[in-house]
Amino acid sequence: MYKWVIIGGGIQGCTVASYLLHSKKADTASLKVIDPYEEPLHRWKTLTKRVGMKYLRSTSVHHLDPDPHGLRKFSKKEEYAQPYIGRYDRPRLDLFNDYHESLFQRYEWNDIWMQATVTGLEKNPDGWEINTGGRTISAERVVLALGVNDRPHLPEWSAPDDERMGHLFSSQEAKGSGSLVIVGGGISAAHLANTYAVDGEREVTLLKRHPFRIKDFDSDPGWLGPKYMNGFQKVTCYEKRREMIKAARHRGSITSGLSVKLKRHERQGRLKIITDLVEAASYDKDHIHLQLKDNEGIKAETVLLATGAENCIPGAEWLEGVIHSYELPTAPCGFPVVDSHLEWGPGLYVTGALAELEIGPSARNIAGARRAAERIAAI
């Protein structure tokens, strides 16, 4: 039986594992991280590479290592050129990834990693049984570090079976060349538009529903400390907490730096930017035609959706059965009600989206992962 099992090896799960190992609350013999992919941060690396990200949105102190200055020490030691940009010292993506490769080697992650897909949880007198289809793992404590970016949100007019249309979060990339329409107004869509515009090999249109929302971060930094969190913690109504989270998140926002780049591409004729709604789509032999509400329709040979993830509970396909079987407390929105240590049930902990009613609007990002990991490792 393991002392700790973390379900999910993305940013959230890897941060919790790093904190547990660093604090010596676990070692390579007592900890297991279960994830469908072969290596840590696989989904993160895949998506950031796909959009062409060069620098993170978060600051240099927000990473997976408990030492907030670890990334900066590493960049100096390895002598990275221009490791950070902007007033907030946003790190280079390759620096960020290289640093965590060194971190995983330091903690001997090969010994704690298990490639498998979890299908269920069962309580036993000593802890939990984690079902992975063909194998069962026993643990005293389980951390649910489940993401939602494997559940792409598809507009009603989309045709996901058409190979000329793809979604950023889908494993199936859109096939085709020639004119490209990117649908979305958030930071992922902006990165994609910038990447294809720089490439310059095809006609690129960015189609968004709203004007650019320029924000440095996906929520105000005040949510990382007492400035806003003191008031949030005093709210006992979880419906009100959900409203506060929705209001605080800068959904569909992009950084000022990306906005400048996109407008420059537009001026130079490498990118067309349209703000409008798609009312319908038709799929002809040679192109996809998007009918817009206020503008002339667009013809494209390829459509790439950057419309985010479904608004759902992570792992719902098997987690709902666990919630029902063990009467785990949930708010009206269906998300967990947990204590200050993020414990949902005896020996069952959450991080990421599942912890947002306790951690607040930052729960899904790297800073939120660090705050959640601190609480869990303090047990």
TrEMBL record:
The keyword Metal-binding is annotated on this UniProt entry: no
Source organism superkingdom: Bacteria
Pfam families, per the entry: Pyr_redox_3
Keyword Repeat annotated: no
Keyword field: Monooxygenase, Oxidoreductase
Alphabetized GO MF terms: monooxygenase activity
The protein's name in its UniProt record: SidA/IucD/PvdA family monooxygenase
Source organism per UniProt: Halobacillus litoralis
Native organism taxonomy: Bacteria, Bacillati, Bacillota, Bacilli, Bacillales
